[in-house]
């Protein structure tokens, strides 16, 4: 039983679905559709370059196992590349974003709590603001300490103090603990 390219793809789309399932992507998402398109292209490209005959079910099954592995790797690399690019975009400075016309939306979600973030930022020392910025970018205390020329213990104490001040302000208190 020989299949042409279209029949082979149509009868074996489960290979692509299984590769996407291994990535734990939910079928009802837009990402799933995008990955299915990329996986379909990879399957068809591999089918076109495959030189052995695909006449028996055993040969087709062997082809699908290899194709599934290749598709999984292609999709995994695609997801990882996308995540790296998003991380690069999210770690850019606000000035660069504004300059390129990608300024983030400015909404004050804390207005419902009667809390103003600018008041919190204004009450912090410049050193604390730098530590807060580095901490918000995902750096650990161990990574922040050499940059700020402080000990890890000092960094953790300052972060803990800032958290306590933030909780106090959100609960309606003053930054000075009054």
From TrEMBL:
Pfam families: GerE. Keywords: Transcription, Transcription regulation. Signal peptide: none annotated. InterPro entries: Sig_transdc_resp-reg_C-effctor, Tscrpt_reg_LuxR_C, WH-like_DNA-bd_sf. One of its GO terms (molecular function) is DNA binding. Residues 129-166 form the HTH luxR-type domain. This is HTH luxR-type domain-containing protein. GO terms for biological process: regulation of DNA-templated transcription.
């Amino acid at each position: 039983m020989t299949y042409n390219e279209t029949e082979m793809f149509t009868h074996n789309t489960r290979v692509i679905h299984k590769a996407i399932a291994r990535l734990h992507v939910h079928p009802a998402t837009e990402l799933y559709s995008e990955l299915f398109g990329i996986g379909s292209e990879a399957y068809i490209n591999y089918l076109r370059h495959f030189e052995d005959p695909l006449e028996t079910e055993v040969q087709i099954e062997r082809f699908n196992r290899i194709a599934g592995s290749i598709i999984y790797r292609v999709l995994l690399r695609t997801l990882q590349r996308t995540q790296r690019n998003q991380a690069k975009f999210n770690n850019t400075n606000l000035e660069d974003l504004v300059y390129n016309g990608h300024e983030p939306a400015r909404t004050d979600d804390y207005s419902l709590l009667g809390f103003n973030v600018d008041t919190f930022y204004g009450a912090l020392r410049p050193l604390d603001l730098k530590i807060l910025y580095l901490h918000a970018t995902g750096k650990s205390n161990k990574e922040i300490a050499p940059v700020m020329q402080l000990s890890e213990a000092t960094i953790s104490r300052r972060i803990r103090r800032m958290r306590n001040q933030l909780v106090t302000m959100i609960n309606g208190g003053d930054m000075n603990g009054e």
